[in-house]
Recover the amino acids of this structure.
């Protein structure tokens, strides 16, 4: 029995860059024992939003830590 392949489109809502639409392909091994999920940006704007996440990073600073003690 040959492996199977399914295609879908998923939208991920990110709080800092907005929605990111991804093409999603699921590749299934012939014995159905393994699956590989492949996600790729659906368009140029989605690719740019992913790139923006690389610049923004994942660190968040609590509001109480920002500006405290910087100026006498």
């Amino acid at each position: 029995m040959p492996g199977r392949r399914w295609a879908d489109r998923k939208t991920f809502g990110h709080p800092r860059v907005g929605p990111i639409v991804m093409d999603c392909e699921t590749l299934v091994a012939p014995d159905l024992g393994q699956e590989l999920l492949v996600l790729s940006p659906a368009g140029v704007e989605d690719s740019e939003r992913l790139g923006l996440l690389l610049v923004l990073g994942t660190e968040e600073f609590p509001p109480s830590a920002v500006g405290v003690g910087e100026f006498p």
About this structure: DSSP finds one helix and three strands in the chain. The mean pLDDT is 81. The CA atoms of residues 28 and 35 lie 5 Å apart. The radius of gyration is 19 Å.
